[in-house]
Amino acid sequence: MNASSWAMRAWLALRAAGYEFDEELVDIRKPQRFGNLARIGKLSPAASVPVLDTGRTVIYDSIAIMEFANDVCNGALLPTDAEARAHARSVAAWQHAGLSSICHRISFESAFYPVKRAFSPTERAGCERLFSHYEALLARYSGPFLFGAISLADFMHVPTVIRLCRHGADLTRWPRARSWTDTLLHHTLVVEWMREADTLAPVWLEDYLPGGAWPAAPAA
């Protein structure tokens, strides 16, 4: 739960849709990662998490699971207006297709490190670009969420907001985005996930610090 932002996104959407499911947690840390994902490969051709087995169909992509969640709650997790709905899907797809390139070394895993490093100038510029876009969406659709009511677009961006805000992103210039971020991070489902994720041992990634590996093994 502190290593898979994609599983978190799918979980949030399914829970928000009121879809009942049983959870099976999969440890994707090395070295057990490879054996566990191979086991998932017997169920899903993607051999990755998340995967949803409805009993009739296996859905093995996070955004497909989220769209399924929207379908089972009669479209409540996307705007009713066709253009706004397409816009929301664009925002969700941006995250799915490449938003991780913004501050990519500040991963979801690093949100749980007890000590955080500072943003680099490039990472700071990436934050500014992203939160400026959030601010524009909130102004256009009047908040409190990106498209008015909470939607798949908000849930898709939760892990990104977590990793950047936990590294001290300064949102002073974007008051709407700051309010949205606070509301999002205090959402009941986000709090529920993070409460458990915060109890787990951090997953240390070598590319987090400049120069590579951690200088010493972190305390458990």
Automatic annotation (TrEMBL):
Gene3D superfamilies: 1.20.1050.10, Glutaredoxin. One of its GO terms (molecular function) is maleylacetoacetate isomerase activity. GO terms for biological process: glutathione metabolic process; L-phenylalanine catabolic process. Pfam families: GST_N_2. Residues 81-203 form the GST C-terminal domain. Residues 1-77 form the GST N-terminal domain. InterPro entries: Glutathione-S-Trfase_C-like, Glutathione-S-Trfase_C_sf, Glutathione_S-Trfase, Glutathione_S-Trfase_N, Thioredoxin-like_sf. Keywords: Transferase. This is Glutathione S-transferase family protein.
